Amino acid sequence: MVENRGSVARMATILSCLGGFCAAPAQDLITPPVFAEKGIQALNPGPWGDLEYYVVNLEPPDNLVGTARDIDAHVEGTVWKFVAHTPEMTADTLTDAGLAPDAVARLTGDDHLRVNGAIVEIRPPEDLVESLAPQIRARLYPRIGRDIEGNVFRNFYLIPPGGIRSLAGADSGLSDRTLDLIERLTYPVEGVRAFSDIALAMRRAADETERRRILKTLLREKSFALRLKVSSAAEIEDVARYWTARGRNLDVLPMLKTIAINSEVQYLDIVHLLPPTPRKLIHTYPRRTMSVGWETPDCYWTAFNFFAYAPSNRHFDAAVFASQIQDRYEPATKPWQLGDLVLISDADTGKAIHVCSYIADNLVLTKNGKGFYRPWVVSPLFEVTASYARVKRLAVHFLRQKPRPKTLRVRR
What we know:
about 400 residues
């Protein structure tokens, strides 16, 4: 589901601090590799050692789904709200989107149209909604509900390139009829596939159980579970240089030394090699207790807390971002290192869009949205940038924490 990924003020503040930090076009940095979706596969070897991965599909727990935005979408049904419109303007919008004259006349008749102050509401019949061509949805839906918070036609569900079935897999619990319906209602939006007709899908569901399964499936996110293949003690020593992150993650040394001398240990889950905060967060969903007022953990909070023993809520504050970028970071150079901050921006406007943390082999730890329904996942960097395909030209900044100043020892 597409969400606001941090306040405009926060993004603008980060952007203003990049100054002379170099940026490169996303396509120049990340060549899309082919990742197998099934089984255990090897990644490219590197200073991080020999890593293997398998893909897990995460979905929000029942307690979160029960409070999701669209849990009761079937009650009211589909409503198109056109802000600052008159009935005549709404008819023109429908016509411009490509609807036939008879469909426009039907939708703007007394049976389906209602004026509510400065908002024109249309309650389209289900058969008409289902009959819309994807191109018409693509032109019409972005015009519905502008400036209305939580509007599903602008904050839509993302469908992967393989379609809803690639997201559902074999364990979604959804019927073929429901999956076929969602697939038919999917439409293109600037390089991605979108789904907004959640109300119709929920009304067609067999029962409450399937309605919950629809939401769980649409909110699924793929994550890479990683494990390190244990080598000889000498090789582990080389690997330790990478995972200790220039002295910022020394807590992993005892574990690495232990497995190096234990011949029975073949693999070590990468979670044991991450700093404390990402170690707790990876593959999980935020808890309600993590919010501060209206603020919830987002990609910026996550990236700036990567090496923190205990996460700081200062990173909800745009002014803190400014000082962090200016005082603590500098441009990174290849090879990329554990914890490097990867900031994605619009190459034309310079607007900051997203930030994540480098793990290894172009995999990053990312939180793709600030809501409770977006987990912390490990993703290929090219998939993260691909989710912003609506931006014509992306730039990727790699930033690294500056070396810690040496402390002067005073002899007593």
